[in-house]
Amino acid sequence: MIKMAVNYELIAKKMGVIWSEEIEKILKALYTPEESKILLLFSGPYMDRLTAAKIAKELKRPIEKIEPILEEMARTQRIFSAKGGDETTYSLFPLLPGLFELYFANHERALKEEEEVLKIFTEEYEKYFNKGLVSINSNSAYPMMRVFVDQEVIEDTVGRGKGKLVDVNQEVEMVKNDILPFEQAKLYIEQARRISVMDCACRIHMKFHNEGVPVNEYPINVCMNFNTWADYDIEQGFGRELTKEEALKTLTAAAKAGLVHTTQNITEKSMFICNCDRDCCVMLRGIRQFNNPNAVASSNFLPEYERDDCVFCEKCTELCPMYAMELIDGESENKRIEINIDRCIGCGVCAFNCQNEAITMVKKFAKIPAENMREAAIRNIKGKIN
Ligand code: SF4
Ligand code: SF4
Ligand code: SF4
C-alpha cells in the first residue's frame, strides 16, 4: 500500500493559523497521520459537528475502528466533543481559543502521559508567538475576543447615575448609556445551564516555558466554561463544576487580583469567560509586545477619574494591565493620576480596586458584537489586516 503524506499545512489553514515550522512541529507531535486524516474532514473550527458514523463513512473505515480514535482524541484535547441526547459529535478546534487553552488547562494529564509532546507544544508555541505570528494572525478589525467590565463595577456606575442596566427582553432606545445584556457578567452566569472552572492555559504554558517557575502570583484556577464546554472539561476530568454563586465569586476574586475579564466577541451565550493577566495572556501580551490593538476588542467603557476623591495610593497604577496609568507631579500640589486612553482597554480593573471610588467606568462607545460565532468568524476574516 502507498502511504500518502499528511497535509499538515492544510490542517493549519483549517484551524485558522499561519503556517510555520513551529506549527508543523506542534501538529506533527499532536496528531498521528490517522488522526490528521480525520481533521481534514472538517471545514473549519466549530463549523461542522460530525458523528463517528459520518467520519467512518467519509474515511471508508468501520465505525468500530474510528470511534475509539475519536474518543481518545477528545480525552487528550486534540478534538472537541459534545454530547447531545444519545449522540456525540466532534468538531475541529481552532488553535486559539481552543486547542491551546484546553490542552494546557489539562496539563496534569499531558505531563503524566506525554511529557515530550507537552515540551514541543510549549517551546514551539512560544517561538511562534515571539515571531509575532499569533499577533499577525489575530490582527483583524474584528477581534474574536473582547474585554468586559466586572459586574460590581457596572453596578457602581449605575449607582452613580452614569448608566442603566438593560434586561434581555427590554427594548433599547439609546445604546450609549444603556448597559446591554452582553455587557453584564451576571446574566452570563444566570443564563448558563452548567458552569465549570479550569486552570488558565496561558499561565500554565508560561510556567512550563519557565521550567516550572510561575511567572507571577495571579490566581490560576479561574478560567470559566459554560454549557457544552463545561460538559466537556468536567467529563474529561480537568474542569470543576461551579454553582452560580461560586462563579460570581470567582469573577470577583479575579477582578480583585487585577485580572481582566474577556470572552468571545459575540452577543449570544458565550462558551467561556477568561480572566487574563498582563504577563502571560496571549492577547494582552500581543497588545504590549507587538503593539497590536486588535489582539482583543476593548470594552465600550472608559475610566473617569475624580481627582478630589483620590488619595494617591497608586493601587490603580500598580494593577493596570496596560500600564496606562501614572502618578504625575507626585511631590507637588498638582499631583494626579493620568490615564493614557490610547492604551486603555476599558477593563475596569482600576475602578474595581480603587478603595476611594475615585474612578468610574462610563460607557463611551456603542460597539455591538456579532450575534454568534459564525457571524464573528465572517467579520473577523473580512476585517483581517495583513
Ligand atoms: S490568560 Fe486569559 S486567555 Fe489565556 S488562558 Fe488565561 S484566562 Fe484564557
Ligand atoms: S486607586 Fe484610586 S485612590 Fe488610589 S491612586 Fe488610583 S485613583 Fe487614586
Ligand atoms: S486604565 Fe488600565 S485598568 Fe483602567 S480601564 Fe484602562 S486598562 Fe483597565
Summarize the structure.
The chain is of the alpha+beta class and 386 residues long. Helix content is 42%, strand content 15%.
Task: Summarize the structure in words.
There is one protein chain. With 386 residues, this protein is α+β, with helices and mostly antiparallel strands. It folds into two domains: 8-98, Arc Repressor Mutant, subunit A; 145-382, no CATH class. It contains 18 helices and 15 strands. The chain has helices at residues 8-15, 21-30, 33-39, 52-59, 63-75, 95-105, 107-113, 115-130, 133-137, 151-159, 185-191, 201-209, 227-235, 244-256, 282-290, 315-319, 349-353, 373-382, and strands spanning 50-51, 80-84, 87-91, 145-148, 164-165, 178-179, 195-198, 223-226, 240-242, 260-264, 272-276, 301-305, 325-328, 336-339, 359-363. Strands 4-10-11-8-7-9 form a six-stranded antiparallel β-sheet. The chain has a three-stranded antiparallel β-sheet with strand order 1-3-2. Helix 7 crosses helix 8 (115-130). The protein is globular. 44% of the residues are buried. The model has no long low-confidence stretch (mean pLDDT 92). One iron/sulfur cluster (SF4) binds next to helix 12, strand 11 and helix 15. Residues 310-316, 337, 354, 356, 358-359 line the site of one iron/sulfur cluster.
Quick tags:
single chain; 386 residues; alpha+beta; Arc Repressor Mutant, subunit A; 2 domains; three-stranded antiparallel β-sheet; 15 strands; 42% helix; binds iron/sulfur cluster
Helix content: 40-55%
Beta-strand residue percentage: 15-25%
Cα radius of gyration in angstroms: 22 Å
Q: What's the domain count?
A: 2
Number of strands: 15
Q: Say which molecules are bound, naming each kind only once.
A: iron/sulfur cluster
Uncertain stretches of 5 or more adjacent residues: none
Outline: globular
Order of strands across the widest beta sheet?
A: 4-10-11-8-7-9
Biggest sheet statistics: 6 strands, antiparallel
End-to-end separation: 42 Å
Mean pLDDT: 92
Number of discrete helical segments = 18
Sheet/helix structural class: alpha+beta
